[in-house]
Specification:
Order of helices and strands: HHH
Number of strands: 0
Number of helices: 3
Number of domains: 1
Shape: rod-shaped
Strand content: under 5%
Helix content: 55-70%
Distance between the termini: 36 Å
Length: 47
């Protein structure tokens, strides 16, 4: 939501308050959500 409302009109680059950093966080979170955390997950340490 922050990408659209706050950073969207400023362009891509973070140096001009753009959405570059927020987009990278979104892509990383979606990647972990889709493939799972694997051996770095808490469940791996517990079980």
């Amino acid at each position: 939501m922050a990408i659209l409302k706050v950073h969207g009109q400023n362009g891509l680059w973070a140096t001009s308050n753009g959405y570059e950093y927020n987009l990278s966080l979104l892509v990383i979170a979606m990647g972990i959500a889709l493939i799972g955390a694997g051996r770095y997950s808490i469940a791996c340490f517990l079980f």
